[in-house]
Each structure stands twice: as C-alpha cells, then as structure tokens.
From TrEMBL:
This is Lytic murein transglycosylase B. Transmembrane segments: none annotated. It comes from the Bacteria. Gene3D superfamilies: 1.10.530.10, Bacterial muramidase. It comes from Solimonas marina. Pfam families: SLT_2 (PF13406). InterPro entries: Lysozyme-like_dom_sf, Lytic_transglycosylase_MltB, MltB-like, SLT_2. One of its GO terms (molecular function) is peptidoglycan lytic transglycosylase activity.
Amino acid sequence: MQKLLVVTLLCCCAVASQAQADDVDYSQNPRVPQLLERLREDDGFSEAQLKQVTDALADAKRLPQLIVQEQKAPERTETWTQYSKRVDTSRIRAGIALLQDQRDTLERAEEEFGVPPAVIAGILGIETRYGRITGGVRVLDALATQGFEHPTRSKFFFSELVEFFALCRDQHFDPRQPKGSYAGAMGDAQFMPSNYRRLALDYDGDGQADLWSLPDAIGSIANYFTHYDPDWRWRAGQPIAVPATIHGDALPDGAVANTRDHFYYVRDLEHAGIKPAVDLPGDTVVGLVDLLLDGGGHEYWLAFPNFYAIMTYNPRIYYAMAVTQLARRIEAEASASP
C-alpha cells in the first residue's frame, strides 16, 4: 500500500509538472500578427476588436492532448467492425423519435434542399447523438493549440481560428465561451467556424443561426449538403450505396476502393466479378467501398455520388458508411412502426 501511494504521488507530481509546462501565452505567438492582419483586411476588424482577440488568445489554454486525439481519430484507427457499433439500437430509436419530434422542420428541409429526413437524422446521430453530446472543450483552446502547434494540419486549424474570431464578432459570442469537439466543431451539427459562418441557417426564426438549436442544425445540415461543394452536392432522389459481393477473396487487380478519384461502370465491375446486391443499369457509375472487418475480412459496397456528398462532412469512409447505415435503419424501422 505504501509503495502504491508513492507511485500515485509521483504520478500526480508529473501531471502537475506537465500542466505547468503547457502554460503558454498564445497572444505572443509569432503568427499572431498574421492572424490579426487577416481579421483586419478580410473581416474589417477595428483596433478595439483586434485588442479583444489578443486578450482572448492570452487566455487560451494549450491542450496538446487534442492533437493526439485528432491524429488517433477512430475513423483512422478502428476496423469497420468496431466503428459500426455506433449504428446501435439507442441511436436508431432516438433517430425515429427525432423524425417524429421534428417532423415539420425535417419536411421543410427536404422540400427546400432535397435531403431526406433520415439522412439528416443520421448525421445528427453520429455527430452528437441528436444534440446530447456537443463537446466540452473550449473552441478557443482547441483551435489555438492546433492552429499554432499541429505538426501537419496547422494551416487548416489556423484558418479556422481566424474564422472563429470573426464568427464570435458576428454572433456576439465571447470567444472564451463556446465549447465543442477536440477539433473545434460546434453545436448539434458540429460545424467548424468557417462552415458556421457560411452555411448555418436561422431555421426556427428567432433571429440567430444557433447550431445548438435542433431546428437550426437541421436546416443547416440540409443547406450544407447542397451548398458546401458544387461537385459533391446532394442529389435529391438518388441512392447512397448498395452492398456488393465479389468473386474470390479480394478485389480484382487494378480495382481501387475508398477514394473519390476512381469510378467504374457497373457492367465493368460485374465482368470483373463484383456484383451489386440489387440490379443496376450497366452504365451506372459508382465507386468501390472496402470495409475492413475484425479478423481481416472485408465488406464491400458500391457508392453513388450521395455517399461522397456525405464524405464532405467528414472525409472518412467509415464515417460516411455509419451515417448511411444509420439513416437506412432509421428510415426502415420508422416505416415499419405502426
């Protein structure tokens, strides 16, 4: 017992030492003048507003564990068997409840943007469990830490830090207040600041685009899918993906999966031994999805453009497939309910 106590005390001291070492004044970072210049030139910040930015940066906390979390995101490190557990009974039931509780808002979003209610529910279910878990990290800390220090993605996070300060000015937020994910995504819809500024909608008519409001999140997700990327916008009335089987133990030589850079005619895939679970016209253009299972097995799907529209939300195959399958289950079980 005494030895355990000593070890525990040593660990506590190490944690305290690390916390002290991580104290930093980001307002003194050499890239701050660049940040301020962008806010001045691109967003018309006054000198008083720029002073508020530097004051907020002085209060930002360095959280290097967020960089590790971003680098080890489950979409990168898990098998599909593990990741697919997110398509669980509780999410399906809560998704069905969302379709009922937000019926008018979802129907309006589908009418205006063509995005089905179940797909919007799938996004909300995977992102935040329908607004229940929106993140507990200050966005200021997440974006400052990664914007100034991320080893490979600092350019992206730095740009989002600039957008965050502009968003706070526009929405009258105190930059020290909003909380979100480890990456700085906010609200029920988990928008990054740039998307919040550009694509968030006031869908409940209260005069503010508030992504912590389910109606605003629903409208904003639908708006996102039709305006974020013209090349991969949502195509109303078209499918997302269908299961496929292959002849043999692996994809044929030359077949490339899990990318938006290679597409195939269904007839060519069928000649190569890849068969969709439903009949499709031979000239249908699809992508290949290869999901790694525990034990080294594989699950195959053929993806339509709407699957890649979902990937604009999060560019990981597992994420897009989880949204796809959750939406399918919600829609199927909602239709089967009396």
